[in-house]
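Pinned message: reference record for Histone H1
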Amino acid sequence: MNRFEQLRDFVMGLEADFKKFYEKGNKAAGTRVRKAMQDLKKLAQEIRVEIQEKKNQM
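Predicted structure (tokens):
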């Protein structure tokens, strides 16, 4: 469950930059969101691998 909390906290931390980009047109916030999305992709892949490893051990 720790991974879920990590994922949730990561996504919730992006809210301010999403609002700045979409509501105010702040380009720097858009750059931060794009970088964060790449980091999210990496985190998701790590979680996928971890789940597959645990599943294979069962």
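Pinned by admin. Summary line: The mean pLDDT is 95.
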